[in-house]
Design goal:
The structure is a single chain. The protein is mainly beta. The chain has helices spanning about 350-365, 375-390, 425-430, 435-445, 505-515, 520-535; strands at about 5-15, 30-35, 55-60, 60-65, 75-80, 85-100, 105-110, 115-120, 125-135, 135-145, 155-165, 165-170, 175-180, 190-195, 200-210, 225-230, 235-240, 245-250, 255-260, 265, 275-280, 285-295, 300-310, 315, 320, 330-340, 365-370, 395-405, 405-410, 410-415, 435, 450-455, 485, 540-545. It is about 15% helix and about 40% strand. The strands form seven sheets. Strands 2, 3, 4, 6, 11, 12, 13 and 15 form an eight-stranded antiparallel sheet that branches. A six-stranded antiparallel sheet has the order 17-1-23-22-19-20, with no helix packed on it. Helix 1 (about 350-365) packs parallel to helix 5. The radius of gyration is 26 Å and the shape is globular.
């Protein structure tokens, strides 16, 4: 007889209200002009171009083109905006021809050198992007996202940026697409960006102060969300199922439902507000976040804690025991990152740790790709390429190792590249590498076994600049099926950088891997025992696992 897993489902409900996502709530009666240009001529002295960039005016339009080399073009002028007030920047841009998949945008908050500013714009392929530029380096705040609100080649797209209280709200053709914290300007210069070898036309730019909308306070209530399956009662509900659970529910709100997401994944919602989503569950603890937002920006958040318990270790069917997943016969691939050369709070050992892990894993058949003192773009590209590499063969064993600064914020974990500029809490999401991105790449790969090792639980060096109380260490992460996640210390605790050439955790991990005949779980048990003893109980390593087969570093 087949024994079913047991699920224990705990539900908590939070709600919050933010911002203003209905474009029509601000009309001309709510606007006070700061700057207007209909481009009938160049009375406002925009840049007129050079041998690689052409700017001209005709029929009330500003034509801006790049040609002859691989450089983008920008033009800008100084416009004073009082950032303590609510304001709006609105322009209308048409892509005419040229490079199809690069950004054409409105710029704002530029300093005079133009190396620091913000861009909001689109490509001709139906994607939009919001980017922060610091010292000429691009840091996507909202990376490329597809939207149906963009019009086709040759048609004008109205781009609107509203700063309301402490948030930016972004609209395309009067459709809300994104909101985030309103970062301060680097300078009072505003302009336009055109991609290399591309031509655009600009119809106008209007900048206004905003008065409080009359309808802004009409709806401040979050959506009402009812979970219809499984039946959720006060406390917990036990459910019998396989390795997944179907969540069904309904969201309702007088202003209309904008979207419903689970763990950031948008879920289809019908006209009556009904939705459903099949959640995959690992054995052990699973955390899921369901968010429903209305068209006014009010949000309800439901937090699920699901514990899946397997009754028996083996599933019995027709008196035959199913064999373990084979995980010791395929190729072994490792991505190693060690970051220590930070501008703020440098660390002595991560580069040494990355080097010794690279050397040791090579002895056990791993093909190793190593990065030391990696920057943001390098880490993003390396993780994406790692997921692609693992997807080539289901039998590949993947190992990701990171040593360096890691920060948890709002229950999520971020690894910090060495060029991260963290001046406030919100910057962590801009400059940090979300571990969820790594997990998504491993899920995409679909290989049988992945190992994640995070020696990144140091004290938060930026805690004093955060508004909220900063949490120590990293938050717990649920291991997807076929994955083990190892932390240098327990959730919410910190690990020392170490006084020797290597951190204490990595030092003991290398020793444990050298012991032959140990399953990976036993390797980490040995590490935990030695680290606990050496730190007098101050540091206790931790793992979350959903492995389905036995793996040996050294059989």
């Amino acid at each position: 007889m087949k024994n079913s897993p047991i699920f224990i489902l705990l539900l908590a409900i939070l709600s919050s209200a933010f911002g203003q996502t209905n474009y029509s709530d601000y009309t001309s009666a709510n606007k006070s002009p700061i700057f207007v240009d209909d481009f009938k001529n160049n009375a406002n002295n925009w840049w007129t171009g050079d041998q690689y960039r052409t700017c001209n005016y005709a029929n009330g339009q500003f034509y801006f083109s790049t040609h002859g080399n691989e450089e983008a073009g920008i033009t800008f002028r100084q416009i004073e905006i009082n950032q303590s007030k609510d304001f709006e920047i609105e322009t209308s841009i048409a892509y005419l021809d040229g490079t199809s998949d690069l950004l054409n945008a409105v710029l704002f908050g530029l300093d005079r050198t133009s190396v620091n500013h913000y861009k909001f714009g689109f490509s001709s392929t139906g994607y939009y992007q919001y980017v922060k530029i610091i010292n000429s380096e691009w840091y996507p705040v909202r990376d490329w996202m597809q939207t149906n609100s963009l019009k086709t080649v040759g048609d004008y797209n109205k781009l609107t940026i509203r700063k309301i209280q402490s948030n930016y709200y972004f609209f395309i053709n009067e459709v809300f697409v994104y909101n985030c914290d309103a970062d301060p300007f680097y300078g009072n210069w505003i302009g336009f960006h055109v991609a290399p070898k591309t031509s655009i036309a600009i119809d106008y730019i209007y900048i206004n102060y905003l008065k409080k909308s009359q309808t802004e306070v009409a709806d401040q209530d979050p959506p009402v969300v009812e979970i219809t399956s499984p039946q959720v009662t006060r406390g917990y509900k036990i459910v019998e199922s396989s390795d997944n659970i179907l969540i069904k529910g309904r969201a309702s709100d007088k202003s209309g439902i904008f979207e419903v997401t689970i763990n950031g994944v948008k879920i289809p919602v019908d006209a009556s507000g009904n939705f459903q989503y099949n959640l995959k569950l690992a054995i052990g603890d699973n955390s899921f976040t369901l968010r429903a937002s209305d068209t006014k920006g009010n949000m309800a958040t439901h937090l699920f804690e699901i514990l899946r318990k397997q009754v028996n270790d083996n599933v019995v069917n027709n008196n035959n025991i199913v064999d373990d997943v084979q995980v010791n016969t395929g190729k072994r691939e490792a991505l190693i990152i060690g970051n220590g050369n930070y501008g703020t709070a440098p660390l002595r050992n991560p580069v040494n740790d990355a080097n010794v892990m690279s050397s040791e894993l090579s002895k056990y058949g791993f093909s190793v790709e190593k990065y030391t003192d990696a920057k943001y773009q390098d880490m993003k590209r390396a993780i994406s390429n790692f997921g692609t590499k693992l997807s080539k063969d289901k039998s590949i064993v993947g190992l990701f190792y990171y040593a360096g600064h890691g920060i948890q914020m709002k229950g999520k974990n971020f690894l910090l590249p060495v060029d991260a500029i963290i001046e406030k809490e919100a910057d962590v999401e801009v400059y940090g590498i979300d571990i969820d991105g790594l997990l998504s790449n491993l899920e995409y790969a679909g290989n049988n076994l992945n190992i994640i090792i995070l020696d990144a639980c140091r004290n938060n060096p930026f805690a004093r600049s955060f508004r909220s109380a900063a949490s120590n260490g990293l938050a717990t992460v649920n291991a997807p099926i076929g994955t083990i996640i190892a932390f240098a210390t327990s959730p919410g605790s910190t690990a020392a950088d170490g006084d020797a050439n290597n951190g204490l955790y990595t030092q003991e991990l290398v020793k444990a891997m050298q012991s032959g005949g140990l399953k990976i779980e036993d390797v980490f048990k040995k590490v935990r025992s030695q680290v606990k003893q050496s730190s007098n109980g101050l540091q206790i390593p931790w793992e979350n696992s959903s492995l389905e087969g036995d793996f040996y570093f050294k059989p």
